[in-house]
Fold this protein.
Amino acid sequence: MNLNKHPGKLFIISGPSGAGKGTIAKRILEETELEFSVSMTTRSPREGEIDGVHYYFVDEEAFLKNIEEDGFLEHAEVYGKRYGTPKGPILERLEKGTDVLLDIEMQGALQVKEKYPEGVFIFILPPSMAELRKRLTGRGTESPEAIEMRLSKTLSEIEYVDKYDYLVVNGVLEEAVNRVKAIIIAEHSKVTVTPEELIREYTKGEEK
Ligand code: ADP
Ligand code: 5GP
C-alpha cells in the first residue's frame, strides 16, 4: 500500500538532436507505466513510422488551425518543420493519475516549463560532441549539412541546462535508461501528502 498521494506526473525528455531521446523514450515506454504524448508534425513520415503512433502527420493548414484553437501545450519550428504537443490528451491523463512522457526539443521544453513548472525536466546529452557526431552519422537520417547544423545547435542548447531538473549523460544506453527510471521512482517518492492525511490512512483499522 502506498501512503503517499500519486497525482499523474509530466516527464519531459529533451536535449539535442541525436542525444538518444527517442531511444531512451522507447525503452521507458516499454518498461514503465508512462504513456507517450503523440505530437503533431508537418514533416513527412519516415519509413516504419505510423500515423497516430509516432506522430500525427498533418499539413500546414491543420497545424495552424490547432494553434488557433489553442490546442497545443507548446509548439515549435524545428529545421523548417512544425512540431506541437496536443494539450487535451495530456491534461486528461494527468487528471486520471497517469504519468505522461514528452520527447520534445528545447524550445518546446522551455515553453512547457513556463506553462507547467511542476513537470519533471530531464536533459539528455551524449558524452561528447565527437560521440554525438558519430551517432548522428550512424543514424543515417540526415545529410552531412543537416548533421553539421544539428551539431552547431548543441552548444547553444547546453546553455539552458540549468532550466532542467536532471541531466542524464547517455553514454552506455542501459545506464542512461536506468537513471531515467530512477528519476521517475524518486519523483514518485516525494512527499505529497499532509500529516493529517497520512495519519488518517496509517491508522485505518485501528479505531475501536
Ligand atoms: P534523438 O531522438 O535524441 O534525436 P536517437 O534516439 O534517434 O536520438 O539516437 C540517435 C542515434 O544514436 C540512433 O542511431 C541511436 O540508435 C543511437 N544511440 C542512442 N543512444 C545510444 C547509446 N547510448 N550508445 C550508442 N548509440 C546510441
Ligand atoms: P524528428 O523529426 O527527428 O522526429 O524530431 C525532431 C525534433 O523534434 C526532436 O528533437 C524531437 O524531440 C522534437 N519534437 C518531437 N515532437 C515535438 C513536439 O511536439 N514539440 C517540440 N517542440 N519538439 C518536438
Notes: The first strand starts at residue 10 and ends at 14. Strands lie at 10-14, 35-36, 39-41, 55-57, 72-78, 81-86, 100-103, 120-125, 166-169. Residues 17, 21, 39, 43, 74, 76, 78, 83-85, 103-105, 107-108 surround guanosine-5'-monophosphate (ligand 2) (CB under 6 Å). The first helix runs from residue 21 to 31.
